[in-house]
Write a structure and sequence with these properties.
This protein is an alpha/beta fold. It has a single domain, classed as Vaccinia Virus protein VP39 (Rossmann fold), CATH 3.40.50. Helix content is 27%, strand content 28%. It has 7 helices and 11 strands. The strands form 2 sheets. An 8-stranded mixed beta sheet has the order 6-7-5-4-8-9-11-10, sandwiched between helices. Strands 1-2-3 form a 3-stranded antiparallel beta sheet, with no helix packed on it. The longest helix has 13 residues. It is globular, with a radius of gyration of 16 Å.
Length: 222
């Protein structure tokens, strides 16, 4: 599938899948979307000093890098697992500008450490941030009661509906700890209903620039 690097509305770059007319991040602002959906409405609502995070769709590593920066700033410990079936090529990563857009040029080496760390094994990126990247498909997730927070950042339901159905969200529900949180940029009614059918309590929240709403789901305490 043909891919190209494009610049989004906030100046940050992302990858576009031309045949699907789908991007790894919002064309209205890749960094703005990540900060709003996954940090403001995800990471910042988890009230524990050690947070276990599962990212569904590791992709460009933007969410992981921003989360690393937050861990350093807030002094919290994060154990981060990123799932990706098709890792982004280094030649594409070289064209992304996340450290500069985030005013984190002095942390740029950590962006590359995140990407060049081994797949499957755990890597200590810093004292506050441990990373495990797993190359596999979403339907291979069998974790149970492990995570405080899930970043659900798959390609949209328009192009990959099988990633947004009830069966997938049952997997996510099982993977979360009691009272765990899942956040996603999507606000589709079909996605909300699939989450609810899986057992989640779901709320609509104001979306990032360019989107009216997003969804946050919480696992019920047993």
């Amino acid at each position: 599938m043909k891919r190209q690097i494009i610049t989004t509305a906030d100046g940050s770059k992302t990858i576009q899948m031309e045949d699907w007319n789908e991007q790894y991040h919002s064309i209205h602002g890749a960094v703005q979307e990540a900060q709003h959906v996954f940090i403001k409405n995800g990471l910042h609502v988890v009230k524990t000093s050690e947070i276990h995070i599962l990212e569904m769709g590791f992709g460009t590593g933007l969410n992981a890098f921003i989360t690393f920066l937050e861990a350093e700033k807030l002094g919290i410990k994060i154990d981060y697992v990123g799932i990706e079936a098709y890792p982004v090529l280094e030649e594409e990563l070289l064209q992304l500008n996340y450290p500069s857009i985030l005013n984190a040029e002095i942390k740029a080496d950590y962006f590359w450490q995140i990407h060049r760390s081994d797949w499957e094994g755990a890597s200590g990126i810093s004292n506050n941030f441990k990373l495990t990247k797993q190359q596999k498909f979403f339907n291979e997730i069998v974790d149970s009661d492990l995570y405080h927070l899930i970043y659900f950042d798959a390609f949209g339901a328009r192009v990959q509906p099988e990633l947004w159905d009830e069966a997938m969200f049952i997997r996510m529900y099982k993977a979360l700890k009691n009272d765990g949180v899942l956040v996603t940029y999507s606000a589709k009614g079909s996605v909300r209903r699939a989450m609810q059918a899986a057992g989640f309590i779901v709320e609509r929240l104001p979306g990032p620039p360019g989107k009216r709403e997003m969804l946050r789901a919480r696992k019920r305490c047993s």
